[in-house]
Amino acid sequence: MSSFLLYGANGYTGELIARLAVQKGLTPVLVGRNLQKIASLATELGLEYRIFTLDNTAAVDEALADVPVVLNCAGPFSQTAKLLVAGCLRTKTHYLDITGEVAVFEAIAAQNSSAQASGVMLLPGVGFDVVPSDCLAAHLKARLPTATQLTLAFQALGKISRGTATTMVEAQGKGGLVRRSGVLTSVPAAWKTRTIDFGQGSAIAVTIPWGDVSTAFYSTGIPNIEVYAAFPASIRIGMVATRYIGGLLSLPPVQNLQKRLIQNQLPGPTEIERTQGKSLLWGEVVDDSGKTAVSRLQCPEGYTLTAMTAVEIVSRVLAGQFHPGFQTPSLVYGADFILNFDGVVRKDLNGLGNG
Question: What letter would DSSP give residue 58?
């Protein structure tokens, strides 16, 4: 079987995934709310398409009944995941998405028992959020099984899409998140600063509420987790400023203004920019005796990698490679899953574990 439902195909990343899926021999059914854009893309690619909103339960169930798996590419996922997951549980359809939102991961994890009872897999985060970092976390855990602290970091060398920018706007004023003793804990935005060598010289990174604060706990069982991202000084200063003006930035008129400005920008990086970009990841684990293990990943540009990993995971689910219940990429496909993709290089920086 090669057919699956691609919800949010009219978005920047959704279109990338649709095109790659067709190249790989899959036949996604394109779904979205923008009739003109969906119809145009479907006609170009020779695909079926549907238009409906997620609050139309009957339309959701009818669409999901025809396919074994849905891939949700419509962010912010705080607005789409709950309704699609509910539909998947009703129709016994596997659910995938490309979210990086901690609250979404946690909400889907809470549906684990229902998913197991229905025999379906709920696997959020099948893109750059969080496939490479999740695989890196699992690899580090294997190198140091006694680890009690996990630090992950990334440096994305490229531009962001309008969808990513919109999700970032919605997160303003919400502060940061880390995991302490197994519990998600709120901290100020850009709470900690750390200098990290991603393999191209040192960069200054700050803590962010990245999805691995949620998922890496399920993947590794490590109770203390922090995630960092390297940003230019101007962005780091802006993140700190949200500690004081976060309330203002969260007001609906301010949010709406920022989103309108985002819509005036290009949808995302060009093909040339994606080809030239890359993603650098770094991870460290520490145990209570002070032993450490450090590893790095070099990957393709984030949106390119998202299309690659998402399409590969869809293909595997269609081939029957899935585990019922809430899952993470590494729990289902292993720490080495990320090594299957062109342009990915993993390097261990000390002699612990299996190297």
Answer: H
Rounded Cα–Cα distance for residues 137 and 131 (Å): 10
DSSP annotation of 32: E
Q: Which of 315, 317, 306 lies closest to 341 in space, CA to CA?
A: 306
Backbone angles phi, psi at 217, to 5 degrees: -65, -45
Whether the bond into 286 is cis, omega within 30 of 0: no
Distance from C-alpha of 185 to C-alpha of 176, rounded to nearest angstrom: 8
Find the helix or strand (DSSP H, E) in which 110 lies: none
Q: How far is CA 84 from the centre of its chain?
A: 17
Distance CA 329, CA 105 (A): 12
Write out pLDDT tens, residues 208-250: 999 999 999 999 999 999 999 998 887 777 777 777 666 766 7
Phi, psi of 50 (to 5 degrees): -140, 150
H-type alpha helices, 127-183:
131-143, 162-171
- DSSP-derived letter for residue 126 is -
Residue 25 clears pLDDT 90, i.e. is over it = yes
Report how far apart the first and last C-alpha atoms of the chain are (Å, whole number): 38
Determine contact, residues 278/298, Cβ cutoff 8 Å. yes
Q: Are 97 and 17 in contact (CB under 8 A)?
A: no
φ/ψ of residue 241, rounded to 5: -60, -30
Between CA 106 and CA 112, with CA 108 as vertex, the angle to 5 degrees is 110
What pTM, to 2 d.p., does this model score? Answer: 0.91
Residues 6+ apart with CB under 8 A from 99: 72, 75, 77, 81, 105, 124, 125, 129, 211
SS3 at position 223: coil
